[in-house]
UniProtKB/TrEMBL annotation, chain A:
Coiled coil: none
Keywords: Cytoplasm, Endoplasmic reticulum, ER-Golgi transport, Golgi apparatus, Transport
Annotated source species: Pelodiscus sinensis
GO BP annotation list: endoplasmic reticulum to Golgi vesicle-mediated transport
Pfam families attached to this UniProt entry: Sedlin_N
An annotated GO cellular component: Golgi apparatus
Subcellular location: Cytoplasm, Perinuclear region; Endoplasmic reticulum; Golgi apparatus
Family indicated by similarity: Belongs to the TRAPP small subunits family. Sedlin subfamily.
Protein name: Trafficking protein particle complex subunit 2-like protein
Domain of life: Eukaryota
Amino acid sequence: TIVAYILRALQNYPLYIRSIPTENELKFHYTVHTSLDVVDEKISAMGKALVDQRELYLGLLYPTEDYKVYGYVTNSKVKFVMVVDSSNTALRDNEIRSMFRKLHNSYTDVMCNPFYNPGDCINSRAFDSMVTSMMMQVC
Amino acid sequence: MADSPLFQALHMEMAHALCADQEKGLGALEGVGFRVGQGLSERLTKEMPSFKDELDVVKFLCKDLWINVFKKQVDNLRTNHQGTYMLQDNQFLPLSRLSNGKQYLEEAPKFLAFTCGLVKGALSNLGFDSTVTAEVTAMPSSKFQVVIQKS
């Protein structure tokens, strides 16, 4: 199982939610919302850190019994959250990092699409297919 | 001297085309700049580490954004450390072909509106609401005043 969320800054409403398998979406809403507190903590801690520690990748936010939650925040304060099965031990940190990079790159492309209005939910087919292929590689 | 033939030519045509009606034209130009600022700031900050604070973001505007669009940095940045910033560009690219002093001064607003929107849009995407105004006393030097709203 794997779920990806993209949430907008400040207002913290989701721009994009995707999970494989799809039935599990609602179950993760609570997990993701509690993890946002951890994201905010890390962001404010980063404000006081040195230059090289100010990465966009936030790492493992917190592990629950069954799931691991990872976070990433862009300079435009858009938060990406990923929830993965704990049983998926094959998934290494740098694979998660590269998945967040792909999400960030595709999100940037969406931002530059003139038909996309910043703040709207993401409705791009190109984005969907990127996320699908990325998540399939992992499941 | 900084040069960007395509951008200058395009910007000039855009200013003329949208400013047939002066009143609405300036608003339209600023709107265009705003959306461009949003997308551009997203692309330029993609590879950069996280911004430390508001001043870091304004410095990004003065260096990376300005170089990307106008092929040079802002020449002078001043702030009162309470949310107001003054960005001064002594060889502002869109004005550089207009005149070297006071000639055509009344036409200057058309060539500043896009950039005001650009700055506003970039700041907005990076999390800051602001008002941006520009003034020109002698071309091609221009000053942009940015006031960032307290959240």
